[in-house]
Amino acid sequence: MSSVITISKLAKHYQVPEREGGLKAAITSLFKRKYRTVKAVDGISFNIEPGEVVGFLGPNGAGKTTTLKMLSGLLHPTSGEVSVMGYEPRHRSHDYLRQITLVMGNRNQLTWDLPALDSFDLQRAIYGIPVEQFKRTRDEFIDLLELKDLVNKPVRNLSLGERMKMEFVVALLHRPKVLFLDEPTIGLDVTMQRRIRTFVAEYNRRYNATVLLTSHYMADVEALCKRVIVIHHGRILFDGDLSTLVNQFSSYKTLSLTLPNPEVDLVKYGEVISREDGRVTLRVPKAQTSQVTARLLSDFQVDDLTVEDAPVDDVIDQVFSQKEAA
Amino acid sequence: MRRYVEFYLASMRVSILSQIQYRVANYFYMIGMITEPVIYLVVWSTIARQQGGVTGGYTPGTFAAYYIVWTLVRNMNIVFTPYGWEWRIREGNLSMELMRPMHPIHSDIAFFAGWKFVVILLWLPLAVFLTWVFKPTIDVTWLEVVVFFLAIWGAYLIRTMLLSLIGMITFWTTRVSAIFELYFGLELILSGRLVPLTLMPPWVQNLSAYLPFKWTFFFPIDALVGSMSPRELWTGIGMQVLWIVIGASFLNVVWRSAVRQFSAVGG
Fold it and tell me: DSSP H helical segments within chain A, as ranges?
């Protein structure tokens, strides 16, 4: 199967002017400017196959958005190669733009004063979507996102979450084959995040669309992405299955147990994280999990016990801190 | 081509619906705007009366006609300003527009074109009021009306091209206001906005013939209130087309360079 997205040694470097504070430095900089090279993306390579949903993770300033902008043709790479469905994104050919979409959580395409239906119609005209296909897709998305009662309200009267759902409809009306989603659930409440995730998963399933998603909410990543790419300081730290990432970088597991007397001292078994409603949560080094579990079961009358991998957020933190230390 | 026609119709519809939402604000804006031509009109009418009723071929009645038509032409000349370009780059909205399979200029032209229909509707009562107060002298032929209708749209397109070109300077520098002010000063003198061009010294009239400004104000107004021959009227339309083509060509060249700049530094 040929890859939909192929990136090879992709780099984006910026020349950033810099000077010290103060009048003297300001005057000096008029005649002699100093520049610093910022390597926003520094020689990354990866392929994405058709229909894959890939999480693109990293802290702020890691190079995620810069990469997405290069993939969507908004930024020209400093070096390296990018190919999406055989197109070179930097040419931004109309054929290419008709097959992709970029959803940014902090940008919008809706007309503020009018009902979203009017924006949908404008989008139909922009992309030249045949009327029948447009109506079918629009109604399908309205149904999936439960927007029927909202599409006639002016956009300015919608909540942030409702607006974001409308943004997704606008962005996907032309049925793009490749979705670049940059923090699409930022600022949304848990319910709305879940609704958006379900919608993306359903769109991926129905249209076999390829999705590259950045998000700071690990729930998004866990729900949607089998594979993750972790980027930091413009370089890829990890590319593989989410489960492998957890196994490889997680140094501990979480044990949750229900005891008749939850106040009992458990310090010698592991780090006690919480005690709530008779349930105690312990953090235990991964290598000692079986041993500690056996000891707990023999030492106490345990009503219930679960062993879980460390939360993905913690694992990602672990990845960054290990690499920083290296 | 069909896609563009559909886009223009859809975008103009959205624009009309949006502007109707702000009809009261639009009306106050237009009322504020007539202050400028009313001042010019009062000053020049007074001068004409002091000079025996005519100055430079204009009577108080023809001055009134000139400046009342001016109010419509001025509204037709409102386009996406360089400040708008500054805003769309600074706020990152340009990125979303660049993701569309269509040049952003179409979106600007279509949106403001839709607004014009609202403006014309709102202008009519104002024109009636100004006519009642200032008693304009106007005698028009069907040809002049047709040419005027074409010329106000031509003026709109020329000004769109010019101000978009200035707006694109924001791709290289975020401070475009100084250049915009310079443009504004030249336009005031060389377009017929401040005073009918025929009242200006001959050298200004000669200079204006080689520049685009005249075709955005004086020509459309004079097409309706002046006494141009059919040949002069159609030549004027031809000049407008020429300036639209020149503007669009420059815009195309500058746009390519601007997008390269934007793609290099981001937005």
Answer: 23-31, 64-71, 94-97, 116-127, 131-144, 160-172, 190-207, 218-224, 242-249, 289-299, 312-325
Residue among B10, B21, B266 whose CB faces A125 most closely: B10
Domains and CATH numbers, chain A: 5-246 (3.40.50.300), 252-309 (3.30.70)
Asked if ipTM goes beyond 0.90, one says: no
Sorted by sequence, the CB contacts under 8 Å of residue B199 that are 6+ apart come out as B55, B56, B58
pLDDT digits (tens), chain B, 267 positions: 888 999 999 999 999 998 888 888 888 888 888 888 999 999 989 998 888 888 888 899 999 999 999 999 999 999 988 888 888 888 878 888 899 999 999 999 999 999 999 888 888 999 999 999 999 998 899 999 999 999 999 999 999 999 999 999 888 876 778 888 889 899 999 999 988 999 999 999 999 989 999 999 999 999 999 889 999 999 999 999 999 999 999 999 999 998 888 876 554
Cβ distance A111 to B18 less than 8 Å, yes or no, reads yes
Question: Taking CB atoms and an 8 Å limit, are B9 and A125 in contact across chains?
Answer: yes
Q: Count chain A–chain B contacts defined by CB atoms under 8 A.
A: 82
